[in-house]
Amino acid sequence: MRQTNTWVSTYTDSPVNIGIVGTGYAAKKRAEALQSDERAHLISVTGNSPERLDEFCQTYALSATSSWQELISQPELDLVFICTVNRDHGAIARAALEADKHVVVEYPLSLDPQEAAEIVALAETKGKLLHVEHIELIGGVHQAIRHYLAEIGNVFYARYATISPQRPVSRRWSYHRQTWGFPLVAALSRVHRLTDLFGRVATINCQTRYWDAPEADYFTACLCNTQLCFANKLVAEITYGKGDVFWQGYRHLEIHGDGGTLLFEGEKGTLIRGDEKTPIEVASRRGLFAKDTQIVLEHLLENKPLYVEPHASLYALEVADAARQSAETGQKVRHA
Ligand code: NAP
Ligand code: BLA
Questions:
Q1: pTM above 0.90, yes or no
Q2: Is the CATH code 3.30.930.10 the one for domain 16-134+288-305?
């Protein structure tokens, strides 16, 4: 890959050389998208358990690298996709940028907003791409909201609730406090959807409850309830729950304006104005990692715009971390 001014390069003879950290759902979707694009050359992968790394390498005809440290030290790599557990995102992103690689990381960029801010600054200093994936923004519901928001007048209240029952809950990373992180940080898209639509947040109030597993640091369920007051006086509530205390899963988003209401129940959208109820067409949640991957390649190679800036992800992370502080202290947190 040939470099011009910043990271924008011209696709000429050689494709972008890429490595992936992780072998799970996101990593598979990345590998499939990259292997079906001739502008990309996926050359290495590293994982956690040797069995799953081996299986991944066989499926995608790749050679395994034994650690992420080894992966990012490969001189031929241009770009690293970080698709592993949340706890490790920050350390890998920082080290990859320091090794002069472009970086794509699944949200959250880090569990710690201070570390995330340093990484964003490092990418700027290095003149390297740092893309924090936020597939919720390119998904059907968000696109529909953007399209219809002007139809409901001044928005004063929004509510977003996602509940995912899981039974039984295995001892996996996403039910481990340190590896997964605070619920709203791990599920950062819940905050980011709202900050993307409604801007700055003034105060945050949050209650979180965990149902602990017998093994230290693991839980079998959590519930996180957060109230955000935006600078423009809009009030929003986020409810996030998962695990074995829940019996009914749902994903509801409602936005109330003085001229109408937008409702989304899963992928079923409705615009309500007076007695009028208009169904809203919503595109499927499938294919978003592929779309994100394509946007990244087109940005790197053709200088086409990305759909999200790292600063926007960082802001959502600060709000999510303020929710953590509120939950820990029992106090409302004021956010600058
Ligand atoms: P996943 O399918 O559970 O994959 C997790 C990956 O991390 C696997 O490679 C797994 O390897 C490895 N891993 C598990 N425990 C580990 C540990 N203790 N130490 C080091 N590595 C460990 O998860 P995923 O859905 O792909 O999520 C990956 C990242 O993408 C997360 O940050 C998530 O927030 C983000 N993300 C996912 C989605 C989505 O739709 N899935 C959407 C947005 C963002 P083994 O299997 O070998 O243990
Ligand atoms: C988000 N999905 C996520 C995240 C994880 C998962 C860890 C990031 C954290 C979060 O925001 O909650 C994991 N999602 C899963 C798993 C399943 C699932 C294990 O649906 C099991 C079926 N993600 C998928 C699949 C789809 C998917 C199969 O794994 C779609 C069919 C979509 N996941 C998806 C989207 C997001 C997400 C669009 C962004 C979150 C949002 O929309 O707010």
A1: yes
A2: no
